[in-house]
Design brief:
Strand content: 5-15%
Order of helices and strands: EEHHEHHEEHHHHEEHHHHEEHHHEEHHH
Low-confidence stretches: none
CATH superfamily of the largest domain: GIY-YIG endonuclease
Structural class: alpha+beta
Largest sheet: 3 strands, antiparallel
Distance between the termini: 79 Å
CATH class of the largest domain: Alpha Beta
Length: 353
């Protein structure tokens, strides 16, 4: 997305924030990141974001223009909309600004300094020095209330430890799935106990059915369907989906493959792709391919043709053996234009020593 002016609208209160950027898409991504992580976002917009939640805000592009005119159109939008979340009511940009040496020195220091195990520095330096986590993770930990020493020295938890800690928390609070009780046919117990008592399919099948939205009773008591009784063409998926689909052309209802074979212009796959791109079924089937397949016009191999010689019909190998001649010789002769009967009955010349 090009440069222009954008608006972040609170759909609940109607208040908004107006800004401009050279790359609107990147700026919106930066806004979401800073608002979610409570970084350096506009204070009024951050407070509204925390109060109403992310779902209440909508990002809109007001004007797309060249980067030289972004401030002009931003000021016009500010005057027209009077955005409540803007700290300044004057369009301003730091693009191309050269900071003083003092300001650059302050930025280089990287914020407040801490002393951890005899080492003094900012969070980024400490995180790189101890090497337990990345500077970004260390900063997030500090924002969540962890001490600086733990944030830069404590290694990340493994997935197994995270799962064990979550299981302990669930059991302590009584929210673990194994502690959840359900009632089926007057029997109350955990899902595992009910599966062992009532299920007519394996436990894995029951849980997969519940993941797909089945009720517990339906997942427990619905018997499995045998493979030979399943109708795989009723709800095809993947590659078989277009093969099972049927369309009507000139009053004839058939699959893409059937129509393609009837008109002989394209393959069934090409016809399905054309229809998916917006072509009508008639045009997709009757329009010749732009680049025809050379293999379609290729003459069949002599070995694949059935021949008739002296009242005897058969493939090339069989007839060559019957007339006592090499099938390679017969194949070569036919490819050179010999009549079929002469190719089989003319004796081969003896090889010269």
């Amino acid at each position: 997305m090009s440069a222009g002016v954008y608006q972040i609208l609170n759909t609940v209160s109607g208040s908004c924030y107006v800004g401009s950027a050279v790359n609107i898409k990147s700026r919106w991504a930066a806004h979401r990141h800073t608002l979610r992580s409570k970084g350096k976002a506009p204070p009024k917009l951050q407070r509204a974001w925390d109060k109403y939640g992310e779902a209440a805000f909508e990002f809109r592009v007001l004007v797309q223009c060249s980067k030289e005119n972004t401030l002009l159109y931003e000021q016009l939008a500010i005057n027209a909309l009077n955005p409540k979340y803007n700290t300044r009511q004057t369009a301003h940009s730091n693009l191309g600004v050269k900071w003083s040496a003092e300001t650059n020195a302050k930025k280089a220091r990287g914020g407040p300094r801490y002393t951890v195990r005899g080492v003094t520095g900012h969070v980024t330096f400490l995180a790189k020095h101890f090497g337990a986590v990345s500077p970004t993770v260390a900063s997030h930990r500090i924002k969540r209330g962890m001490s600086v020493e733990d944030a830069v020295t404590r290694p990340p938890m493994s997935k197994r430890d995270i799962g064990a800690k979550a299981a302990q928390t669930h059991k302590r609070n009584g929210t673990h799935p194994s502690a959840k009780r359900r009632t089926v046919n007057g029997v109350t117990g955990s899902i595992k106990e009910l599966i062992d008592q009532f299920a007519v399919v394996p436990e894995r099948a029951v849980r997969m059915r519940m993941q797909r939205g089945w009720s517990l009773e339906k997942a427990l008591f619905t018997p499995p369907v045998a493979s030979e009784d399943r109708d795989f063409t009723k709800a095809p998926k993947g590659v078989d989906q277009w093969k099972a689909a049927k369309v009507e052309i000139d009053g004839v209802v058939d699959t893409y493959t059937g129509h393609a074979a009837r008109y002989g212009q394209v393959t069934g796959v090409a016809m399905a792709r054309r229809v998916r791109k917006g072509w009508t079924p008639e045009d997709a089937a009757k329009t010749p391919a732009r680049f025809p397949n050379p293999a379609a016009n290729k003459k069949p191999s002599p070995r694949a043709v059935i021949y008739e010689v002296a009242g005897v019909r058969g493939p090339l190998r069989e007839l060559a053996k019957r007339f006592g001649i090499s099938h390679a010789t017969v194949s070569w002769r036919i490819s050179k234009g010999w009549p079929v009967e002469e190719a089989f009955t003319t004796p081969a010349r003896p090889k010269q020593g």
